[in-house]
Amino acid sequence: MAAYILKRILLMLPTLFGVILLTFIVTQFVPGGPVQQYIAEARRGAGQGAEGSAYRGGQGVDPKKIEQIKALYGFDKPPAERFMKMLGQFARFDLGRSFFQNKEVWQLVKEKLPVSVSLGLWTFFLSYLVAVPLGVAKAVRAGTRFDLVSTLVVLVGYAIPGFVLGVALLVVFGGQLQWFPLRGLTSSNWDELSWGGRITDYLWHITLPVTAMVLGSFAVTTMLTKNAFLEEIRKQYVLTARAKGLPERRVLWKHVMRNALIPIVTGFPAAFIGAFFTGSLLIETLFSLDGLGLLSYESVIRRDYPVVMGTLYLFTLIGLVTKLISDLCYVWVDPRVKFD
C-alpha cells in the first residue's frame, strides 16, 4: 500500500506540470492580454475629448508607458523565465496576485468559496439522499411501471441542461409567480434579520439555483445504484440468505447494501471535496451568484493570468489528491481489492 501511494504521488508531479505547462503555452498565444487591453483602453480614452470629440486617436500610446506596463505585469521577461518563476511560486503555494483586482489569488478564492460551497454541498447531499433510495427502490421493483416511469423522469431531467432549467425556473417562479428572488444569495437587509430570518432568507434564495443543479445529477447516481443492486441481488449469497428464511428487508439492507454501495462510496470523497471547489459558471451567472465559477470566467475574459493559472493549479492538485483518496477507498470498503 505504501509503495502504491508513493507511486501515485510521484505520478502526480508530471501530470500537474503538464497541465500547467499546456495552459501557460495557450495563454501566450491568446490575443488580448492585459498589456493589449491597457493599450486599447488608453487609445479609447485618448480618442475622447471633453465633449466626446476625437482629437488624439491617431497618436497612440507612449512607448515608454507601454514598457512600464509590461514591467508591471512581468511581460518584460522571456516566457521561459516567467514560467519558471511561476513554478517556484506554486511550489511555495503562492498563487500570485490578480492583475486587475489588486488582491492575492488566495484571498479571491476565499471570498468566492462560500457561494460555491453553498451550491455544491446542497447539490451533493440532496443528490445522494434522493438518488440512492430511489435507485434501491428501482432495483427492487425492476421492470414494473414504477421503474419505467421513474427512469423516464430521471433521464428527462438529466437531458435538460441545468442552465435551461434555471431559465425556466426564473421565468416561472421568479418572474411570473414571484415566489422566489431572481438573484443573489441573500437579501439586501440580511444584517437586520434575526437568525431564523437569515436561515429562511438564505433557503429562499438558494432554492432555484440548487434545483437547477440537482436535477441533472440525479440520473448517474440513481442508475448506478440500481444496476449495482441488481447485480448483487442475483448472486448466490442472496439466494442463500433468502433460503434461510431471513426477512427481505434484512437481506436488502444488511447483505446487499454493503456490497452494492461499493461504487457509490468510492466516489463519495471526490463528490464531497468537489462540492467545496466546483463552481457552476452558468448557474452562478444566471442567478447572479459571485462564486468560483464566475471568478474563473471573468479571469479568462479579462486575461487575468495569475487568477487563471493559480486557480487551475489549486483545483488540479485537489483533483489529483481526491482521485487518490477515491482509489484508496476501494481497499477500505472492499478488502479483497489488491493494488498489486
TrEMBL record:
Membrane topology: Multi-pass membrane protein
Keyword field contains Nucleus: no
Residues of the ABC transmembrane type-1 domain: 113-326
Location relative to the cell: Cell membrane
PROSITE patterns from the UniProt entry: ABC_TM1 (PS50928)
Pfam families: BPD_transp_1
Keyword terms, alphabetized: Cell membrane, Membrane, Transmembrane, Transmembrane helix, Transport
Entry keyword annotation includes Transmembrane: yes
Similarity comment: Belongs to the binding-protein-dependent transport system permease family.
Name of the protein described by the UniProt record: ABC transporter permease subunit
